[in-house]
Amino acid sequence: MVAVQNKSRRGSDILKFICWIAGIILLNVLAANFFFRIDLTEDKRYTIAPVTKQMLGSLENEVVVDVYLEGDFPAGFKRLQQSVRETLDEFQIYSDGNLRFNFIDPNEISDEQQRNEFITNLAKKGITPTNLRATEDGKQVERLVFPGAIVRYNGKETAVNLLKGNLAASPDERLNQSVEGVEYELASAIRKVAFQGNKVIGYLTGQGELEMQQVTDLLGSLQEYYRVARGELGEIPSLEGLDLIIVAKPTSQFTEADKYKIDQFIMKGGKAVFFVDALNANMDSVGAGGMFAVPYNLNLEDLLFRYGVRLNPTMVMDLNSGFIPLVTGYAGDRPQTEMINWRFYPLLNNFSQHPITRNLDAVYTKFVGTIDTVKAEGVKKTPLVFTSPYSRILEPPVPITLEEARMEVKPELFQDGEQPVGYLLEGAFTSLFRNRLAPAGVQDTNVKEQGVPTKIAVFSDGDMVRNEINSRTGQAYELGFDRYNNITFANRDLAMNTIHYLLDSEGLINVRSKEIVLRPLDKVRVREEKTYWQLLNLAAPIVLLGLFGVSRYYLRKRKYERF
Length: 563
Known about the structure:
Layout: H1 2-33, H2 50-57, E1 63-67, H3 75-94, E2 99-103, H4 112-125, E3 130-136, E4 139-145, E5 148-153, E6 156-161, H5 171-180, H6 182-194, E7 200-205, H7 216-222, E8 227-232, E9 244-248, H8 256-267, E10 271-275, E11 279-280, H9 283-286, E12 291-295, H10 301-307, E13 309-311, E14 315-318, E15 321-331, E16 334-348, E17 350-351, E18 363-364, E19 371-373, E20 379-386, E21 391-394, E22 398-400, H11 403-406, E23 420-427, E24 454-459, E25 481-482, E26 487-488, H12 491-503, H13 523-528, H14 530-560
Parallel strand pairs: 1-2, 7-8, 7-9, 9-10, 10-24
Antiparallel strand pairs: 1-5, 3-4, 5-6, 11-12, 12-22, 13-19, 14-21, 15-16, 16-18, 17-20, 20-23, 23-24, 25-26
Helix pairs in contact: 3-5
């Protein structure tokens, strides 16, 4: 009887073993033919956006990504390094083998001359090294870190800066912001080199807008993604064929025919970005005696009002502002110059959580005004950029003198709070020429009174996209570069993000809204309870394993004692 039972049990065990083997083989066959991945993290940090997957799946040739964030780093940089590696691993899977990446440490080059040449070439390509200070074995050490990558495709290449975020944030927060932006930065670079953009941007002139040399950096950056055309609005019959128009710091009046062309372009689904000053003020006119800033007569107010915003004829002073050089005294015949806070140049470091402005660094502005919203049915209005809480609104005529920079600050005057200076408008707009005849001088007199859904962005500072010019060489500085303080602000990022959002029908810019929650450890508790948790982690697994072995031994002994 016992032999029969043992034989039956043996047959049952063999059958179970065969079923397990068959199940494992079936699972491997299914895994080989049906690909899937499950992200169990709360913030979906390992989930690649559908638009990124689609782009990677459309690659026709191999993309090569050389990442220079390699070496022995502190925990924060290791986390960024690991995030880049994990993201590229995911990209490789969804690219069907059309993506390859390498991690390179420039500091490993033994020959000093070759290493310096290599570092110089990286800097020319846009990867600027960062001098990282860390504590190792109780000593302060410095290491040169290259938080960037080069993306190559079919002979084209572009640099990617992986250390992004707001400089005003703590180092941990900035690294976390950089981790949040890894997917977008890499995907955007791949799109730049691998997919030829067919959208057309028109830079409009004819109303005293910024000259081409003053927008060289912006238009050059846009040409990496889009086709860019320039045209004088008064001489163009219509704006057909364009996808987006840029109006940057107009200083003279728009005719009704000019406004009609813009209006009908928007009614037909065209996008637009306006960088407009309400008051006439510039440093060239301030001089020794100062000036009064008075409103421009642009004849553009009613158009923007119909779309949902009003550019107020005001000027903002802000305690959070830039600096200008001023002569504060003389040493003999030589003037002594100091950098003085100039409250007419607000530094904008207060943003909404919209994908355009998320994790953006500070933006440098000059003589900025305020914006209000007005009723416009079917239009969603999203404020993008604000001044600091310590702002002051001035009504025209606004006296602007260099003496103001030398005056003692009275904080009680700067109590007007945060002021919006940039808005995104989305929806189906109503034409300014509704129930009106088309103005004289236009080609198409068939007025489209109600528009199709589209997007507009309005900023109350025309200098926001103006790059400075080197007076000695005549070359344009990088957009956002403050030559007096040798700092580059995020003006170009703001302008590019705005245009990408307006033209991005696939939604890649929305990847910037990815959020990874920073969960720092309690450093005091870590220090106090370090020994306890170390012992627990070492002893607990051994104790549990021993208890499992003893329990299994007695259970098996009890089970087989009956036979």
